[in-house]
Amino acid sequence: MTLVVVQDNPALPERFRGAMRGVASTVCIVSAPTAKGPRGMAATAVMSLSLDPPSLAVAVSRSATLNPSVIEGAPVSIHVLAEDQADIARAFGGGLPPDMRFTVGWWSADAWGCPMLEDAAASLSCIVERRVELETHSLLVARVRAVRTAPGTRPLLYAQGRFTALADPACQPAA
What we know:
With 175 residues, the protein is mainly beta. The chain has helices at 12-21, 86-95; strands at residues 25-26, 28-32, 39-43, 46-51, 54-61, 75-80, 107-109, 115-117, 122-134, 137-149, 156-159, 162-165.
């Protein structure tokens, strides 16, 4: 194991990236209505924040075309992708230009005009309550207004630079 402790060490960012690639994350799509039409991006930095009131946090890159539209008070939707939706993750992860991304998948709109992925493992309609600028990202705190789930649907994961899925419990060795 190699330890890098000097914060301004030029190797630190790449070592940090390598360490974070080992953190398996659920793949989500963050979407919102904008003046230019719906915009969205793939995200793995999404976390449950509170049950009372139901809220979550999501990091949005400042370079994302979605970023200027997700201001405080704006509607936003978060979609947990199902294990068979890697094509949607690729499209929203930069594989398609922003105005073409919603051609992949089955999309509708929620009561607040947010794009909703109909066959996601879960979709959450939210409103941005707080936005904090941190380094290269904006951290959004979003209050959940409505939730749709597809019980039994397994999530798409991202780890070690590739999409993957949960192991089938039936294939696990006996203890």
